[in-house]
Design a protein that fits this description.
Elements lengths: L1 H49 L3 H17 L1 H11 L1 H21 L3 H29 L2 H32 L2 H18 L18 H24 L4 H21 L15 H18 L1 H12 L4 H12 L1 H14 L4 H22 L6 H18 L2 H8 L6 H38 L10 H9 L4 H5 L6 H39 L12
Helix pairs in contact: 1-2, 1-5, 1-6, 1-7, 1-11, 2-5, 2-8, 2-17, 3-4, 3-5, 3-17, 4-5, 4-7, 5-17, 6-7, 6-12, 6-13, 8-9, 8-17, 10-14, 10-15, 10-16, 10-17, 10-20, 11-12, 12-15, 13-15, 14-15, 14-20, 17-18, 17-20
């Protein structure tokens, strides 16, 4: 009788602990996606207020993405060794402070550094949060928890652009980062309620600092080289040096991980075909969906004549369907469709959606013309949201869930940082070519093609137009909008081809068998 009485309080404590984990992680995941979508929408206002160049202001986005991606592996490994609760709490505190500093930043340099610091906190939150859910829930409860993760993250993506546009237009961009600080402070307040796991003891193990330094350094140099390529020239010694340095550091990372006693990335994970296939799904999402989040609003402002708020509203066509996607995935699974089939449908929607958008773009396009491709993209991403994270944890050993979550999210965020930087660079390069020729017809414009390309890709057409006489403005606007549209179509068709190739590879890996195993695929 006493044993039964003792069991009841333990079960109640476990339920309270599970509820606290779910609330804390979901609130954090509601905030983190808005840092990606919202920063892109606020970027034109930040550039105007700070007077910063395009390259400097873009690091508000690139700096966050870079540290976010570069430290995911390290934070995942630390979560396994130091404890998920400890790393989650540290990440929440760091993100709160960094967001408060961003809101009060006196200049673009402080803002860029604060955003990079926020990316460190985001990396700790994302990897430890996924692991907290993985170790707290199992069976159907884990599936429901990760379904909630998908819906919540989708809500953050859906609301981020709209909220950023509304807050920036009414209260200014500083208020947007201040709102981040307030919400993440609430997450930090939930940390004492989280249950302690096996790794949350008082004597944490050491971190893999050589692996962290080589990987983060390699990713930083690669991103910096990609960003600086259009500005300095791809054949310049500086850019070639950055790219060569990134190759050296990433090769050194692979060597370090094969030799250190406690690597932050267990290279044996890379031999797991299903694990690698699942980790590649977010890369397809990056090439089709994520690159649009910070960049498409600027296109809509310039080529469509939208305000920042209206551009954020149009982005809801792409982001709101994410909320429906996890529910649709659950319905399909209950109707007997295999998980592999849901992933295949998701990949198909993402690939078709980005190709459809490429064919639909034109100057002055209406929201109705964008509805089909943007909704298709949103549904495609929503179908795999949460499911990928849960499936990854099911195909690896329990003691490596932090590292597995770190690797998954490193590919997710690393591909985002690089793809956004590469797409930005490509758009600047591609749009300069028609400007080189077309600007000869506008002698009253006192800037060069490079300056104009930077301005319009940052969402600013009003500045270049201000120095022109009124009769020249319609022709100048036509030159800009058609050149920008052609550049966007080239980038999107390239993304479509990449998505198609990766989708085939993923489906083949998911359909294969592990070496030495006669069991059927688990997904």
């Amino acid at each position: 009788m006493s044993a039964a009485q003792d069991t009841l309080p333990r079960r109640a404590d476990a339920r309270r602990g599970a509820a606290a984990v779910l609330v804390a992680v979901l609130l954090a995941l509601l905030v983190l996606p808005t840092s990606v979508t919202g920063s892109g929408v606020a970027l034109p206002a930040i550039g105007r207020d700070s007077g910063a160049s395009l390259a400097a202001s873009q690091w508000v986005v690139h700096g966050y993405n870079l540290t976010f991606a570069g430290l995911l592996l390290a934070c995942g490994s630390l979560a396994d060794r130091w404890g998920r609760r400890r790393v989650f709490g540290g990440g929440a505190a760091l993100f709160t402070v960094a967001s408060a500093v961003s809101a009060a930043a006196p200049g673009i340099l402080v803002l860029d550094l604060a955003r990079a610091l926020a990316g460190v906190g985001a990396a700790a939150l994302l990897t430890s949060g996924s692991s907290l859910i993985g170790e707290t829930f199992d069976g159907r409860a884990r599936g429901r928890a990760f379904g909630a993760v998908g819906i919540t993250t989708g809500a953050g993506l859906a609301l981020g652009a709209m909220v950023a546009g509304a807050v920036t237009d009414t209260l200014g961009w500083r208020a947007f980062f201040g709102l981040h600080a307030v919400l993440m402070a609430l997450v930090w307040c939930t940390v004492p309620l989280l249950p302690r796991g096996d790794a949350d003891g008082p004597r944490p193990a050491g971190a893999d600092w050589p692996g962290t330094a080589t990987f983060s350094g390699g990713l930083f140099l690669l991103t910096l080289g990609t960003v600086e390529g259009p500005q300095r020239g791809w054949g310049s010694g500086e850019v070639l040096g950055l790219l060569a340095g990134s190759v050296v550091l990433l090769a050194a990372f692979a060597l370090v991980e094969s030799r250190v006693r406690h690597p932050m990335l267990d290279l044996r994970l890379l031999r797991n075909g299903r694990f690698m296939a699942l980790c590649l799904i977010p890369v397809v999402a990056t090439l089709s969906f994520v690159i649009l989040l910070p960049l498409l609003p600027n296109y809509l402002v310039v080529a469509g004549g939208y305000s920042s708020r209206a551009a954020g509203g149009v982005m809801l066509l792409m982001t709101l369907p994410i909320l429906v996607g996890p529910l649709l995935a659950t319905w399909l699974l209950r109707r007997g469709l295999a998980l592999r089939g849901v992933f295949g449908l998701s990949l198909l929607c993402l690939t078709v959606g980005v190709g459809w958008l490429a064919s639909a773009l034109e100057p002055g396009l209406t929201p109705g013309a964008l509805a089909g491709p943007l909704i298709t993209l949103g549904v495609g991403l929503g179908l795999n949201f949460g499911l990928v994270d849960g499936a990854v944890l099911d195909v690896v050993a329990p003691e490596t869930t932090g590292a597995a979550a770190g690797f998954l999210n490193t590919l997710r965020l690393g591909s985002e940082a690089l793809a956004i930087a590469a797409a930005s660079a490509a758009l600047v390069n591609l749009v300069r070519k028609p400007f080189d020729t077309g600007l000869k017809g506008f002698p009253s414009y006192d800037g060069g093609s490079g300056t104009l390309a930077n301005s319009v890709n940052a969402g600013d057409l009003a500045g270049p137009l201000a120095g022109l006489p009124a009769p020249a403005r319609p022709g100048f606007t036509s030159l800009v909008t058609h050149g920008l549209t052609d550049a966007w179509q080239t980038v999107l068709w390239t993304s479509t081809a990449g998505c198609a190739v990766l989708s085939v590879v993923i489906c083949l890996l998911l359909g294969g068998r592990e070496r030495g195993s006669t069991a059927p695929p688990e997904v």
